[in-house]
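Hi, here's the filled form for the chain we discussed.

Project: internal
Contact: R.S.
Residues: 273
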Amino acid sequence: MIRAAVFLLVAVLALPAAAAGPKAELWARWQAHDPASAARLDHSTWGRFLDSYLKREPQEGNRLDYARVTAADKAALAGYLARLEAVAVSGLNRPEQLAFWINLYNALTVKVVLDHWPVTSIRDIDISPGLFSDGPWGKKLVVVEGEKLALDDIEHRILRPIWKDPRIHYAVNCASIGCPDLAPRPYTGDTADAMLTAAAKAYVNSPRGVRVDDDGRLIASKIYDWFIDDFGGTEAGVLAHLARYAAPDLKARLSGRGEIDDHAYDWRVNAPR
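And the returned structure, exactly as it came back:
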């Protein structure tokens, strides 16, 4: 028993510090798409759910009122996810696919939190496989085109490596206060690009994205540290990215800076206080 405990302690101490997020590793079978497809998916059920339960709080980030969701709306959300599972996503054009994967990720995350409500943080939902699992991201939760998928698969094996667009990080929501806002309406093929840009601007110009404290220190979201490779691979690349979406006042405060002083992230669940 003592030997096992010692082995476990050594294994824990040997784990690398959580300084980086998962790498983008392409799952090649999801590259298939049909540029000529005119199909448009119906995300109205997700839209009605957001209209009912998402509280728009510009100063503190959008909050989802999990505690108030009715049994009927939980069933409607489950039905929406089931319809997404039935979509032949490989036959869609790229913009429709982008909207499909973002909406699937966000609606599925909300369902996971609802299924385990009440929780203080999504990281407390330890349903991922593995002895040191943290959160729900590694568990296979849906089946699309016969493939079992986890949230990690959608974000890190499909969205990030196929689109290679750092704005993806502003679209997928991890049900945390520190995360970019859960969008108040569904993504669609026609609106996805504009919504990604709007989400980038909103987060970069919020204190959760980047701020300068009273001592003049530049504090950025941990997202820019975990996924630095998606923002150019260096702090200079991150700063250039931030400047691209910063409003004039913030852009002026970023000017001439060569590094980020610290990173922060709030893992508390994005429910109303």
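Let me know if anything looks off before we file it.
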